[in-house]
């Protein structure tokens, strides 16, 4: 893989030039960006791969007192449907995509919609739902919409400032575009990250005037849910456990389970993978299958002994207050 990335360096230079020209034309106004009357908050990143966007969206939704006042608009990566689609009874995971369906299932009072065309998606939400806030999931690079606020996520183990453009690196957008962010969240940090290291990272990111930097780590739930009801994480010890993942980076979950003293085999698949009948038949031969919440929505009802482990962002130095202030100040009066 490293050799292929090195061989792809000339292509990455071309990619970087295209990205630069695209953003330059948007900045000049040659490519138009549209604003909307509804307050919009974009949650995204500059790279491909998991930085914790879905748990961040869930953090915002969970902290709205009246969840019907908030809408989530996602592309719906990997879905079988096309165009604009609103989550409602009868619309399944294949129609919405795994992450939007997960949010819809967890927060039924919130509005969840998918559309690769973010302008059309927002216009439809304004016309049919009229929410107070629209959260745009994974839309930092979608310049056709000019959002009111931007929350940029970057992983502790692969900060965007240390990365390079595809295919040699993981960047899909220019590092310079970080200046559009109101808040930069360094995710997946060690839970004991020192103030000195936080300061060093903040210095490396070099935030502009008014930009805030907060730090978070992922906390795994110790109560598992699934086809057998709720069970404690310790109950997995001594079982022949199979971990099944279809996420961008499962290494942190592997490390967590190892620290907990849980033995497992790991069947890893690409991000957003829709499991085949043959794969599901294989999983049903296993004594116990553990998966992520995102994968669970694609496997629910298909495997007899299936459970999932939930995750959430936990913030350091009261960083959650910075994020909640950004959202709550934009909620109009009821």
Question: What distinguishing features does this structure have?
Answer:
334 residues, six-stranded mixed beta sheet, 11 helices, 15 strands, globular
Question: Explain this structure to me?
Answer:
The protein has 334 residues and is of the alpha/beta class. It has 11 helices and 15 strands. It has helices at residues 2-7, 9-28, 53-62, 93-96, 98-106, 118-128, 195-205, 251-259, 277-283, 293-299, 319-328, and strands at residues 39-44, 70-74, 85-86, 111-114, 133-137, 149-155, 183-187, 212-220, 223-226, 231-232, 241-245, 264-268, 288-292, 306-309, 311-315. It has a 9-stranded mixed β-sheet with strand order 3-4-2-5-1-6-7-8-15, sandwiched between helices. A 6-stranded mixed β-sheet has the order 10-9-14-13-11-12. It is globular, with a radius of gyration of 20 Å. The mean pLDDT is 94.
As residue ranges, the low-confidence spans are none
Distance between the termini: 53 Å
Structural class by sheet pairing and helices: alpha/beta
Largest sheet: 9 strands, mixed
Based on CA inertia axes, which overall geometry fits? globular
List the helices and strands and how they pair.
Elements: H1 2-7, H2 9-28, E1 39-44, H3 53-62, E2 70-74, E3 85-86, H4 93-96, H5 98-106, E4 111-114, H6 118-128, E5 133-137, E6 149-155, E7 183-187, H7 195-205, E8 212-220, E9 223-226, E10 231-232, E11 241-245, H8 251-259, E12 264-268, H9 277-283, E13 288-292, H10 293-299, E14 306-309, E15 311-315, H11 319-328
Parallel strand pairs: 1-5, 1-6, 2-4, 2-5, 6-7, 7-8, 11-12, 11-13, 13-14
Antiparallel strand pairs: 3-4, 8-15, 9-10, 9-14
């Amino acid at each position: 893989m490293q050799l292929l990335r090195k061989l792809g360096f000339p292509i990455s230079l071309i990619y970087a030039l295209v990205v630069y020209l695209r953003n330059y034309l948007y900045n000049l106004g040659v490519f138009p960006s549209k604003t909307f009357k509804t307050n919009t908050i974009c949650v995204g990143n500059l790279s491909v791969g998991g930085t914790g966007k879905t748990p961040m969206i869930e953090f915002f939704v969970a902290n709205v007192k009246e969840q019907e006042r908030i809408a989530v608009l996602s592309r719906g990566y990997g879905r079988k449907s096309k165009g604009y689609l609103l989550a409602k009874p009868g619309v399944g995971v294949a129609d919405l995509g795994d992450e939007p369906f997960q949010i819809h299932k967890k927060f039924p009072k919130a509005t969840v919609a998918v559309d690769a065309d973010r302008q059309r998606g927002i216009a439809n939400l304004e016309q049919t739902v009229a929410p107070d806030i629209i959260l745009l999931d994974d839309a930092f690079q979608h310049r056709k919409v000019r959002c009111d606020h931007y929350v940029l996520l970057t992983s502790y183990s692969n900060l965007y400032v240390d990365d390079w453009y595809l295919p040699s690196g993981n960047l899909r957008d220019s590092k310079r575009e970080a200046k559009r962010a109101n808040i930069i969240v360094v995710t997946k940090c060690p839970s004991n990250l020192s103030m000195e290291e936080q300061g060093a990272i903040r210095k490396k990111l070099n935030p502009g005037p008014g930009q805030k930097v907060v730090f978070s780590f992922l906390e795994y739930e110790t109560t598992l849910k699934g086809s057998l009801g709720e069970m404690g994480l310790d109950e997995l010890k001594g079982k022949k456990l199979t971990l099944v993942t279809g996420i961008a980076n499962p290494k942190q979950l592997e490390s967590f389970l190892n620290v907990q003293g849980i033995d497992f085999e790991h069947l890893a698949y690409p991000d957003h993978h829709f499991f085949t009948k043959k794969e599901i038949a294989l999983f049903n031969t296993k004594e116990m299958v553990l998966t992520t919440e995102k994968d669970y929505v694609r496997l629910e009802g298909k495997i007899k002994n299936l459970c999932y482990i939930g995750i959430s962002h936990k913030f350091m130095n009261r960083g959650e207050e910075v994020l909640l202030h950004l959202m709550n100040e934009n909620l109009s009066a009821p």
